[in-house]
């Protein structure tokens, strides 16, 4: 017998703001990963792995205008990169279509 428990959370306005910020940053990083891979694939015929993109992202975002990415959990950002990596791997295996950009309101 399996049981399921439904738990409702009631975040404060500050927590709601942080949750929305995290989701927005993850969407931005996922879309950035897709666009960088699209550029690399069209120009060089190569695929940028999630690990390589993560290293690139850590080194490139030292500018002040991109510090908002560092304000959210690094684990959430890493998971967004891994989701993009998995989408590209499925595409190259022929299991799915080319990864699409995520827009506000869509599920990851």
Describe the protein's topology.
Blueprint: H1 13-44, H2 50-60, H3 74-93
Helix pairs in contact: 1-3, 2-3
Cα radius of gyration in angstroms: 16 Å
Q: Please, how many helices?
A: 3
Q: Give the low-confidence spans.
A: none
Would you list the SSEs in sequence order as H and E?
HHH
Describe what you observe in this structure.
This protein has 108 residues and is mainly alpha-helical. It has a domain at 47-99. It is built from 3 helices and no strands. Helix 1 (13-44) packs parallel to helix 3 (74-93) and helix 2 runs antiparallel to helix 3 (74-93). The protein is globular and about 50 Å long. The model has no long low-confidence stretch (mean pLDDT 88).
Keywords:
mainly alpha; globular
Brief summary of the model shown:
This protein has 108 residues and is an all-alpha fold. It has 3 helices and no strands. The protein is globular.
């Amino acid at each position: 017998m399996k049981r399921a428990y439904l738990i409702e959370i009631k975040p404060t306005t500050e927590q709601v703001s942080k949750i929305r910020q995290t989701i927005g940053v993850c969407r931005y990083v996922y879309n950035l990963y897709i666009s960088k891979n699209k550029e690399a694939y069209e120009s060089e015929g190569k695929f940028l792995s999630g690990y390589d993109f993560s290293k690139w992202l850590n080194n490139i975002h030292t500018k002040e205008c991109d510090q908002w990415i560092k304000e959210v959990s690094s684990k959430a950002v890493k998971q967004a990169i891994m989701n993009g990596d998995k989408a590209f791997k499925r595409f190259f295996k022929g299991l799915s279509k080319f990864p699409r950009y995520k827009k506000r309101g869509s599920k990851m």
